[in-house]
Design brief:
By secondary structure, this protein is α+β, with helices and mostly antiparallel strands. It is built from two helices and four strands. The protein has helices at about 10-20, 50-55; strands at about 5-10, 25-30, 35-40, 55-60. It has a four-stranded antiparallel β-sheet. About 10% of the residues are buried.
Amino acid sequence: MENKPFIFCIDEQLKEKLEQKCKLLKVEKCKDHTVYIFENKLEAVDMEFSLDDRMKMVFTNKMTF
């Protein structure tokens, strides 16, 4: 599986959960969202995150969007 070193997330509650597991690298302000960019330190499927939570995350190898 390809390495995806970053996770993007715009959900405030999910951001708080992710902060317990991953390092917050950058916060980007967009038009109507704040995008939180984390270092991806999660196992392939982290059991603490529901499928619904994982659907709100974007796993990427680029830090810019």
